[in-house]
Amino acid sequence: MASLGQPPYRARQIFAGINHRRLLSLGEMTDLPKEFRAKLGERTVVSTLRLESRFLSTDGTRRYLFKTHDNLPVETVLIPEERRDTICFSSQSGCPLQCTFCLTAQLGLLRNLTAGEIVEQVIIALNDVYGVGVMTPRGTNLVGMGAGEPFLNFDALMKAIRIMAEPSGLHIVPNRVTVSTAGVVPRIRELATIPDRPQLAVSLAAPTDELRNELMPINKKWPLKELLSACKAFEKSL
User: Fold this and answer.
1) Which residues contact 84 (CB under 8 A, 6 or more apart)?
2) Residue 184, Cβ neighbours under 10 Å: how many?
3) pTM for this predicted structure
4) Which string of b and e fits 214-223 if b means at least 16 CB within 10 Å?
5) Cα distance between residue 176 and residue 191, in whole Å
6) Residue 160 carries which DSSP code?
7) pLDDT digits over 91-124, tens only?
8) What is the DSSP string of 82-107?
9) Which domains does the chain have, with CATH numbers?
């Protein structure tokens, strides 16, 4: 802010504008001076995801296909329930794991998403249902079960979770977030050491190493014995 001739509190205003009021353009941040918004607009943008399509199911479920600034696909799903909404977000565009039952595997890994791109999926989905800046009447749960392996984009994932947990932002606390992994054992063990961490889910797909090796090649690197050991260690840390 100092380089733009602005006081430090402007950063807090911008953060709240994006993450609490869920504004997607600088022009909407009318609590900022007009000249400052113009200067800021020369250096950055608030929103980078572009909505390509939206599918609305009869039960209210909404599926979104976004494109990133470099034209890569990102998928997000919002599932409305009686007492809460659940948003399933992606952590990568494509996926490197080559699970045989997953269509995303055919893309391979296109790239990791940034923390901002992860958060933006949630903001756009909430705005689509409730309107820009409107308080959500129900709680919001998040699941990292979209495209990609979240634990192969661990730093951006955890940064996004911290951003979304901020009281001055979306205020979705980590225990309302569940992250699903195909079995990246070192990251499961690392997650167990983090105080404010999300819930853990593991995609098994098969009860034996022989079958899981066929369905999920990651099992050849971290077989079931190692995976279950890491999960038990995580459980003990709760």
Assistant:
1) 138, 139, 140, 141
2) 22
3) 0.94
4) ebbebbeebb
5) 15
6) H
7) 999 999 999 999 999 999 999 999 999 999 999 9
8) SSEEEEE--SEEE-SS--TT-GGGGG
9) 1-46 (1.10.150.530), 48-236 (3.20.20.70)
